[in-house]
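call fold(seq) -> tokens
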Amino acid sequence: MSLNTKTQLSFEYTLIFLVVTLIAVPSILLFKNYVYESNENIVLQNIDKLANELLNTATQIYYLGTPSRIVLSVEFPDKIENISIVEISPQEYYMVFNVTTSKGEKELLYSSKVPIKRSISITENNCYGSTQTSCNFYYFNESEIMPGPKSIRIEARGDGVYIEGI
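ret:
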């Protein structure tokens, strides 16, 4: 083989390596981004499923009346920073999930058709930006919202349905 042929062969291998690298690196980055977004969507869907299961069960227990209760075994996904129940008025209740996403913290609100509560509440006068409305906030403990399987007791009492971790 002559020197010219060896140089051309070396140049062709370098060119092939460069083309493969230019295709592979962006493809790997796109795939990594897709996987991350897919995982985030799965977590948000699991939170949606959890919230609907808790609220649907609370509605059933409410209409069964006192002293109805049930213990649910549920799976808490990761990325949940806080869960609270907000009582805006005696007829307006929300379950609020604060979730960490790639775009920052996101607040997911789920409306309840029945009064939902917890044993301990905090009353705040500045309720979601309105100084004329006071709200009762019922917060879940940190140990209750950690990722993994949990047992949640949902119990009908005289003034509503109580959702408590066990």
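The chain has a mean pLDDT of 88.
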